[in-house]
Write a structure and sequence with these properties.
Layout (H helix, E strand, L loop, with lengths): L6 H8 L5 H8 L1 H13 L2 H7 L2 E8 L12 E7 L6 H23 L1
Antiparallel strand pairs: 1-2
Length: 109
C-alpha cells in the first residue's frame, strides 16, 4: 500500500534534507517504492506509516477464573490508511476474525 497515500509527499519533502544516496531514493519513489516499503515494514513504528493499523482498546469478558463468560465484547480501533476504504477494512477484519474463531474452535477439539 506504500506509495498511494500522504507518505509519498512526506518523503518527497524530506528528500532535500538527507544525504545524496537517500535523496536519490526518496526523490524517485516511483522506482524505489517496493524497496522503501520493505524497509519500512520491518520496524513497528514505520510500519504504521504505510498501512492500516488495528488496536484492541477495550475488552471485557467474564469476572471469575475458570468460568466461561456468557458474553464478551471488545472495542477495536482501526487507523485507516488513506489508500483503503472503510468497507475494505471492515471486510478484511471480519474475514480475519472468523478465520481466528474457526481456527481456535478446531484447535479446541
Amino acid at each position: 500500500m506504500f506509495g498511494r497515500g500522504p507518505e509519498v509527499e512526506m518523503f518527497s519533502s524530506l528528500s532535500p534534507l538527507v544525504n545524496f544516496p537517500v535523496r536519490v531514493v526518496l526523490s524517485n519513489l516511483w522506482i524505489f517504492s517496493p524497496i522503501v516499503s520493505r524497509l519500512l515494514s520491518h520496524d513497528r513504528a514505520t510500519n504504521a506509516l504505510i498501512r492500516t493499523t488495528t488496536a484492541v482498546t477495550m475488552f471485557q469478558g467474564g469476572v471469575k477464573s475458570n468460568v466461561v463468560p456468557s458474553s464478551a465484547w471488545a472495542v477495536v480501533n482501526h487507523r485507516i490508511h488513506p489508500a483503503q476504504s472503510i468497507q475494505e477494512v471492515k471486510l478484511s477484519f471480519v474475514i480475519n476474525l472468523f478465520r481466528e474463531i474457526i481456527a481456535a474452535s478446531l484447535a479446541f477439539f
